[in-house]
Amino acid sequence: MKNQALNRDSTPKSIDGYAVERVLGEGASGTVYLVKLPGRQRFAALKLLKHYLDEAEVLQIRREFTAVVRCQHPHIISVYGFGEFQNRPYYLMEYLKGDDLVTEIRRGQRPNAALNRERLTKLTTVVIQILDALQYLHSRRIVHRDLKPANLIMTDREHVKLLDFGLAINPFEKGKPSNSIGGTAGYFAPEQIQSKQADPRSDLYAVGVCIYQCLCGIHPFGLDNDWQTLLNKQLTNKFALPSVLYPELPKQWDALISRLLDANPYNRYQSVPEVL
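Above: the chain's sequence. Below: its structure in token form.
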């Protein structure tokens, strides 16, 4: 988590008893603070979501985060708890130091050069870790919905952790508004764009985008495009295969990317075990 230039005037001195040390980052869904745990010389990351909730929504999120807190996996950030501050939900998680997945994989890489064999091996190792973490979540009926490089942190050169569960849902629980668009433009799947229910295949789509960025150094659909152009490219599968950009890349990466990024979820891998 890297510091960003933020308006410090709005930074609270404490949140629900946790002393705020500084802002770690800010995104569309909320702000992440470095906080000190009461009575300890330990620090944690606290994400305060931006939106205000009514009583029913608080109960819903509490149910969801109860499931997330119970998750224990070497490639998933530890979530310590959930609370409310000024009618806004927050969750407390372990504080991680490291760079995001794409930054680490392409560190020192020339922009117009393909990954070498060593980096491809490293990428393969990390992708397996990500998929293992997703399989763990999906087996517990949790869909992340906001997978992107910033939420995949390399705590060292060979170890990745999945974080940020602010949009995680259980799509199988009845009576829940889980078909709302959640996530980050360019990473959420076409079915999320169309306001349809996200499921494990939606997470796999986002993994495909992240892998593509690691392989090619660019986003498959171009994040610099306007919203409508980006949407149209995603819905029509308009992207260049990795080997078209870099002929020296093994063809199996093309097959993996093509299946993960298919606009039709029924043409994608249906589950993590299918990918592995």
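Confidence is low (pLDDT under 50) at residues 1-8, 174-179.
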